[in-house]
Amino acid sequence: MIEVRGLKKAFAATPVLRGVDLRVDDGEVLALIGRSGCGKTTLLRCINFLEDYDEGEIRLDDHPLWYRTDPDGRRRRVPDQEARRMRQQMGVVFQQYNLFPHMTALENVCLGPRFSQKVPAADALTLGRKLLARVGLADKVDAYPVHLSGGQQQRVAIARALAMRPKVLLLDEITSALDPELVGEVEDVIRSLLPERIMMVLVTHALGFAREIAHRIGYVAGGVIAEIGRPEQILEQPQDATLKDFLRRIR
Amino acid sequence: MTYLGWVTTYGPTYLDALGWTAVIAVLASLGAIVWGCALLLVPLVAGRWGARAVDAYVQVFRNTPVLLPIYLIYFGFPLIGLPWPAAVCGGLALVLQNGAYVSEILRGSVKAIDRVQFDAAKSIGLSPWSAFRKVVLPQVLVYSIPSLGNQVVLLLKDTSLLSAITVTELTMQAKLLTEQTGAAYEAFAVVAVLYLVLVSGTEVLFRAAHRAVRWSR
Amino acid sequence: MNASTLTLLLEGAGVSLALALTSIAPATILGAALTALGFSRFAALRVLYRLYVYVVRGTPLLVLALLIFYALPALDLRTGPYIAGALVLTLYVGALFAEVFRGGVLAIPRPQWESAKSLGLPPAAMLKKVIAPLVVRYTLPPYINVCVMTVKASSVLSIISVWELTLAAREIIERTLAVFTVLGVAAAIYFIMCFGLDRLGRRLERRLMARGFAGEPV
User: Fold this and answer.
1) N or C end of chain C: smaller count of CB under 10 Å?
2) Contact A50 C118 (CB under 8 A)
3) Does A contact C via 3+ CB–CB distances below 8 Å?
4) What structural domains and CATH numbers belong to chain B?
5) Is the pTM of this model over 0.80?
6) Do the chains contact at A147 and C121, CB–CB below 8 Å?
7) ipTM of the complex
8) Which residues of C1-25 are buried (b: 16+ CB within 10 A; e: fewer)?
């Protein structure tokens, strides 16, 4: 379970997140939508501490992440080693340039288990092959990213994230940069993960897909979660004025 | 003697040498740019053979150290009846060497500039020569300003090599002062600072020129 | 041009090549260290990097060489011109490599950094398995360029009496006045060395490209 409390962040003088409160339960799929620049990606990146935040707290299974409070009440960043362990519990897939171009698909997938989790090489390779087969790329284990299509690369990226056995998957607009005909194969992989009840937070513009797989959709605007609820509620009976506007523009 | 004392005593001597460095650098830079343009235009008048000749020329100068042409002209010209002053010999060598690099820079810019411009100019009746000269070349020069600035800085630093053929520019002056007074550190430290000033000044100049020309487009 | 002159020139070429190659290795290490400084989280170290590169690139190599050449005896380090020459070349080329490596690091797309971080890779593994290979592949062409420049730069050391190809040629000219032939041959030898190095580099590049990485962000 992920809990975000009072998250605030400003870039230089511009506030981007103005106190976000959020809770994602185990096995839940949460989609974050909103206009460009509304802060949904920033929020995702703060959860993984790829962005530092100014105020607020993030907890995973009730353990505070990234910052610790001193006995005298001061906020202190956790040491790097601990931060790394925290990161290993989250899998991230970016919009593009995920894969390391100098490694094969298999090497990309096995990199995390081998060097972060110290899994022995043979076990890591078996796991890697299994996951690549799982995302439909068993025949591409030795291919380099340059020989893979955008959709295939994203699928390998998902396999790589899964290889770490994370508690949550963070997906940042993973189909936005793809040619339309490649979007389907990536969405299929995500669908196939649903039965395993992995916690997922995805930032997306694909409202149709979000409606299909998300348990809840959160609309980010003005630096907070302006509205959150079940897909049917959000997409068909929006309350927030800006959300209504947003949906109208997208349709 | 303190550094300050050194500077006040020998300042004027440096100034003289600084003048030489600056003059040679400026004239050689202009020469190199003109020569580079000429090299660029050779293929237009001499076709494939011209292009190959220029390419060979550029390859030769890119793969040999600049001291060789300097020595060649300084030692060789008197033997063929051209006993030119050392500074001129050195300057000519710098022009020939850097002209090769300039032509490469310009060629890169030409590729980057829209071919449409060239075709448009030809279609209103300009000969290829005029089209190139009046339409493409000015744009190419503007686009090349940053890279040309880099090249000028390199040329500026290469003027120090003319000390090997007795031209009294900055480096030579430092050597002379060292032999005179034995104060090597001071002599060369001051010269190093002067070069840094010249180099920075040149860079600032070119950046300003680039901005000025961009605005006027 | 007789056989003994040619032999002399070839010996000089051997020295030039040796000087260049024995400077390139330590210069690479120096360059990598400087690049790391340039990305340090301590502002003072970053300033140190900027300063070093500014001074070394803004001063002619000859002036740096003369400074070291005269400065070393003053520090009571009596070494021959070769050590002084190799030292200067290393310090100079190190700055060039630093700028090349810096460009390589900056060329790595942000998601690659973040993927490595998200996988929780320890810094050593991240450097060895991700950053270093990427930087090498991005910087191979400019790296080879700098290597070629080092061979050409070694000729400047002739002025501080390091005996190598250029000095050999000059001495022969001052003796025999066979300016054009001697310098022609010297130029040809430099050309072969530099052009050859460049070709070698291109072949290395092609090998890397065959492994699937075209040197550009995928």
Assistant:
1) N
2) yes
3) yes
4) 20-170 (1.10.3720.10)
5) yes
6) no
7) 0.87
8) eeeebeebbeebbebbbebbeebbe
